[in-house]
Design brief:
CATH architecture: 3-Layer(aba) Sandwich
Number of strands: 5
Largest sheet: 5 strands, parallel
Strand content: 15-25%
Strand order of the largest sheet: 2-1-3-5-4
Radius of gyration: 14 Å
Order of helices and strands: EHEHEHEHEHH
CATH class: Alpha Beta
Shape: globular
Number of domains: 1
CATH superfamily: Sugar-phosphate isomerase, RpiB/LacA/LacB
Helix content: 40-55%
Distance between the termini: 27 Å
Number of helices: 6
């Protein structure tokens, strides 16, 4: 299950992402919003809360740049959010960092690139092994 949310700046990109998820038959929870203005920290809290509770495995957060959402999401325990503006970062944040939240900026990526980033992020598995030790170190920082 994927939880998705956006602020007002990325409401249109959220619709594109939802269509992508439907096309791939990936179940999702739409955490909004279409309200303008909206506060990205609240949306990040809602989406990441779905991951923390086990209701979702992965999150997608969208704002103007992806940076604000990433900053807010990474304050929450157990969340490893990454801003991705191209597929290479999307691939390696999954392979090596086991990121569980993808952040993208509607003012940074277009529809085609967003779909490619989603495809890479959602279908790349964590390698584990030596990378798990580093994930454990990140978890220690949260304590």
């Amino acid at each position: 299950m994927v939880a998705i949310g956006s602020d007002h700046a990325a409401a249109s990109l959220r619709q594109i992402v939802k269509q992508y998820l439907e096309d791939q038959e990936i179940p999702y929870i739409d955490c909004g919003t279409d309200e303008s203005p909206s506060d990205y920290p609240e949306i990040a809290k809602t989406v990441c809360g779905k991951i923390q509770s086990g209701e979702a495995d992965t999150g997608i957060l969208l704002c103007g740049t992806g940076i604000g959402m990433s900053m807010a999401a990474n304050k929450m325990k157990g969340i490893r959010a990454a801003v991705c503006t191209e597929t290479y970062s999307a691939k390696y944040t999954r392979l090596h960092n086991d990121a569980n939240v993808l952040c993208m900026g509607a003012r940074v990526v277009g529809e085609g690139l967003a779909r490619e980033i989603l495809d890479t992020f959602l279908f790349t598995e964590f390698e584990g092994g030596r990378h798990q030790r580093r994930i454990d170190m990140i978890a220690e920082l949260e304590k």
